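Form 7-S
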Amino acid sequence: MTEPLLKITGLTKQFGGLTAVDDFHLSIPKGAIYGLIGPNGAGKTTVFNMVTGIIPPTSGTIVFDGKDITGQQPHLIARKGIARTFQNIKLFESLTVFKNVLTVAQAQMTYNLLESTLHIGRYRKQEKEMEAFSHSILEQMGLAPYADMISSNLAYGLQRRVEIARAMALKPKLLILDEPAAGMNEDESLALVELIVSLRDQFDLTVLVIDHHMDMIMRLCEKITVLNFGKYIAFGTPEEIQANDHVIEAYLGVDDE
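Output:
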């Protein structure tokens, strides 16, 4: 049996007396597109923050690509092949779209300080490679026409795409998307579904996504995990999740009568 790309076991996060995530488990096979949903405050983003190293778990383990990454620093986790976006767009607002992507891509450079200062050795070769790579990402994301625009001048939906493009510049194995369709209309959300699937196929990605656009989640994800009050309540296909009484109760509540 093939080992999952991401395996989360017994993941728990406590903030003082509050348990934000309680004994969470998740196993994602390579190449899958999985969703993580739940009502506001369910603990979804807390899970993402633990997987990407922004906050350490209180207990539990996170194994990525066969290696335990529990509690490691975000930059080390990113180098291992996990990239993410955020609920709130975090672009370099004064830079062009191209520079936003290139700046992240340059994190992969291996030239030393002397080569960088004198523009010799590996510097020229790697700079040209990263520039070409960044342009190719913009092409694949439909952002090439906006390459020279200041990112803060773009429409909101395009800024979301730039953020995903920056994540792709890290050449991830696992792409984690936190509310990628936030602020988008229905047509933009559907276009985003097509984009994420194409990125998965072209780059051999695995994708984990949170979103409150249920139509998008149901169209995009092969399997979905549901959290409520930090606890796992359901896992299954979109059809199974839509018909699950526990999920319906978590989102809609139940009558007291």
